[in-house]
Every structure is written in structure tokens, then in C-alpha cells.
Amino acid sequence: MIRVGVNGYGTIGRRVADAVLMQKDMELVGVTKVHPDYRVETAIKKGIDVYAANEKALQSFRNSGYNVKGVLDDLLKRVDVIVDCSPEGNGPQNKLIYEASKVRAIFQGGEDHELTGLSFVAQCNYDNARGKNMVRVVSCNTTALCRILNSLSNNFGIYRARAVLARRAADPDETGKGPIDAVVLDPATVPSHHGPDVQSVMGNIDVVTMAFKVPTTHMHLHSLIVSLKKKATREEVIEALQKEPRTMLVESKLGFKSTSSIVDMARELSSPRNDIHEAVVWKDSVSTVENEVYMFMAVHQEAIVVPENVDAIRAITASATKEESMSMTDSSLGIRKF
Amino acid sequence: MIRVGVNGYGTIGRRVADAVLMQKDMELVGVTKVHPDYRVETAIKKGIDVYAANEKALQSFRNSGYNVKGVLDDLLKRVDVIVDCSPEGNGPQNKLIYEASKVRAIFQGGEDHELTGLSFVAQCNYDNARGKNMVRVVSCNTTALCRILNSLSNNFGIYRARAVLARRAADPDETGKGPIDAVVLDPATVPSHHGPDVQSVMGNIDVVTMAFKVPTTHMHLHSLIVSLKKKATREEVIEALQKEPRTMLVESKLGFKSTSSIVDMARELSSPRNDIHEAVVWKDSVSTVENEVYMFMAVHQEAIVVPENVDAIRAITASATKEESMSMTDSSLGIRKF
Q: Are A216 and B217 in contact (CB < 8 Å)?
């Protein structure tokens, strides 16, 4: 059993904790939290041990009457792997703490590639992470791009990839974030960081991305324009995408007309938290002209990196092959083809 | 004096009517309306003669106590040019009416190119419209794309143009339209109609567009990726765009971070209805890699076609050269460089 801790119980941490609970080769030792809010109650109801993120947090918990299991240092003594789901930018200081505790660590895409020197997407570079002490799971958008570009690259070769990312502005419970009625360039300069981030996983691929925020709370929408080295028909591209792990194809004629129809499908299928772990490509958007292929893709910003975190745990502990791990992860999370 | 009528007093019709009032070589004879609503009052307050769009509408107006000047047929007897701003798809039947009245007509971008055989953007093809009986002013998005691509084409040559359009979902007063919290593919297939529409103005240019709707009410946001025949620096591209008529460059460091900052600037400048007639390009987004150029552009969906309508009136009556007309239009509407 791999003993796992989750440092931070926010958008990603909560999901990773639940996913770890579903793995038969892993034990969730506990999670940390800074604030004694309703999320502590939801963790306790699930039987998850809660630790205070630091001494100050411990005092807050005691003042609120919560009996926590200790602080982060106590958790670190009891785990083989810590998944860092603390706020973006905490990575460098937390890395020192994890190193001092001699605990393997997984960071999220909010940190720089340089923090670990290895940016991870399971189907692209699982084996590179085997036995490493620290890896970084890349962001939701980069994860999705890597899956699709991995498929196109392996099947046809990529000459040039261009992507425009319409990003959801806030998660559903982030009530302080905007915009409400505007498109915000994010950033106004080109390229956005996503292109270089894809390169941190896939090497020297020619990829340029442009990004902006739109007033939605669920799913990013990517418009992809990719020149292939080997000319392909749309049927060949669709066939390749259908075979790619963690990639789902949907069609607008079945009612998938927007990002919210994808989420509604997940709600109907009782997916926990309406989560969608797959990169979702509109089959009817896949078109080719000469050697160029176009497609629309939706990306669930909160969920898509969860399977990558689970696989990263197995990769850095060298406890399973890529195929074994991805298979266990996918079947436990119910990753599906629609 | 060119005697002008406007058939339809909605989003475009109201603006075209006001713009005609500002032209010293034009007389606004009147506008038509179907429903006796508050827009009749606003027209009357401006001293504009209102006609009923048809006999049924005439009865509605009489029942509401409004004294209109007649019906569309009466208006047509008194004008040289009718600007058709009636709902999309009315073009074919209205064309017959205008032809029977021997009145020159201008249609909007909601109609098919084939209706008139000539799709119009002033700086691209003014002279082709001279003396024609009917032209079609293209849609807001196509107008903006044509302006920018005209600049790039004339200065550097275009090898391949790709654009992703994040469309505002509704105009501010369209309270029945969605989405509220979703990105809606529009359409899910690629290409969207905008590429072929650009070709209807600019000929056989290689242009592919992808489009979707986002929950905003003001300004579309275009992400442009254009391969140039002649390699150019970003400074050269910016210089070309600065010289292009009806094109404005803004910078995020001056606070232009979103579509709504552009509109806020128009409000500050007391632009009527907050209108922006220019295609607005973010200077800091203009980037080049090899022979490819990238940029973000904002398009005011309600206003950008207004100068084209005014020029089209002069073009089809052969009453001014392109330069004379564009100059009169721009100075009357206060078209500016920021």
C-alpha cells in the first residue's frame, strides 16, 4: 500500500483525496486544511483524517472545537507520497519541507516546471517519472492539449499546433471572481504560457497558444488548428482520437451544443461533483483541409488532472507500469467513452 | 442631396438613421417600424418621420394613437436609397418590393451574398459598388476581419488566415437570449460562415474561421493567426494597422484589459450609444514568429457596420469617390485613433 497525504483540500485536493480513496493499492492517510470551514465537515463525514496545515491553523481548529490529527509535519511522517494541492506559488517553500521529511512529492500546474524539472502527463511521459522524488502534474489546459497533441503526434506527426483557449473565469464557488459581462485577455500578449507548458511535457513541438477569460464557471473551450506532417482525413483523425486514452468524443446532434451540455451529461451519469476527467472533443468539429485539422475541445478545469495525480503517485513510487497504473486509475474513476 | 429611407428601426436601423442625419449630402426621409413601442417615441423626439412597415403595422400604430407618415410604399416613393435593416431573412421578399419601386437598396449581412451579388466593405471594394442598384453590407465580424486582412494583404500578402471568434451572445437589450453560463459552439462544425463571407468581399483568400458564443453583451473577440507572404516584424505590422482606416490600436498597459474597457472608453468619450465604429486591435497582442502574426481584436457588434452603410449609400448613387465618402463619413461619426 502506498501511503498518501494531500496537502491542501481545495478544488484539486478534495478530488485527489477522493480518487486516492478509490485506489486499492493506496491508503489516504490524511489531508491538511488551513481554515476550519464546511469543507472540514465534509471531509470528516467521508471518514478522512484532517490535519492542520501549520501551527497557526492548528490554533484556529482548536478555537473552533475541531479535533485534528496533528499538523503537516505529523502527516508527512506517516506518508510515502504527499500531493501538494496548496495555493499556487507555495511550491518552493513546501518543496523544502517535503525534502526535509524525505517524502516524495507531487506538485500541481500552478508551480513552475523548474520546481521539479519534470512536468507530467501520464500518457506522454509516465516512464520519465518512475522513481523520481518529485514531479509536477501540469495544469488542466496543458493536460488536455497534451492528450490531443499526443494522439496527433503519434499518428500523423505535428508540423505546427495553434490553440485559442476561452477559459472559464471562475469555479462555481469562487464568488469574488469576474468578469460578469466581458472577455478579458489572459494575457493580452501572445503566446500564453500554455504553449511552453506543453513543450515542458512533449519537448520541442511547435505550439503557440492565445488565451482569454469568459464569464462561465464550468469548462474551458479550446479551438485547435493543427498542421499535420502526414495528411489525414477527418475519419482518420477521429479514429485516432477515439483510441487515445482519457479522450471522449461527443456530437452536437446528440444535444452536446455547449460546455454546459457536457456538464449536464456528467450530472445525469451521477459523476461525483459532475466531474469529467476526459478531454472532450466535438466529433462534428473535427475537419481537415489539406494537412490542417480543426477541432473544438472542452476541458473540465477542476477534474481533468485528477487521474494524472493518481498515476503520478504510482510513477514516482515505481509501483506499477504505465499501462497498469492508467488502467487501475481509469477503471476506479469510471473514465468512459460516450 | 441623397434622399434616404431606413426600413427597420432595430439595432442597425436606429444607428444608420442617426448616421444619415449627420451627413451633409443626405436627407433622412423616414424610417419604418412594425411595433408601436418606445423606439417610436425616441425617433419622434429626434424629429425622425416614422412610417408603418406594412398595412397591419399601420393599424397597430393607429390603435396606439400614433400618427405615422404612411407605410413603406409611401416612404419608397420619396427616397433614392432604402437601407434595409429589417430582420434577417426578409431580404428576398423586400428586394422585390424595392425593385418594383425602382429604389436602390442596401441590405445587411444577415442576408446571403447572392441576394445582391456584391458584398461591401468600403476600404476593400467601394468602387465595385459604384452605380449598382443593390449591395449588401457584410456582418460586423466579417467587416472587422476584412479591414484587418485588407491591411495585412496590401502590406505583406496573406498566405493563410485563421481566426477564432468568441461572439457576444446577445445585445444588451436582448433579454431572452442565452447562454448565461456556458460557451455555445456556433456552429459546432468548422469552418463558420465568416471565412466564406470574407471571401465574398476579398476574393480567393485562404481564410478559415471557428466561432462560438460566450455570455457577454458587448463586443466580439477575435483571435487572429495569419501567415504572411512577406515576413514582417511586429513593429511593421503595427505600423500598417495604424495606417489602416477605421482601425484602432489599444494597449493593455493603459487599462484596456477586456472588451468592457473598450466600451468604457467609448462611454467616457460620450460616443452615442457607447458605439465604437473602429476595429479595435490590442497593440500588445500583435506578435510575430517567423512569417506568422498573431493578434486579438474586439468588434462592436452593433456599430461597426454603420460607416459601411453610409459609404454604401454614396457608392451606389455614385455621388462621391471612395476617399471623399470615407472622409465625410469618418469625420461626421468622429472615427478616431486612440
A: no
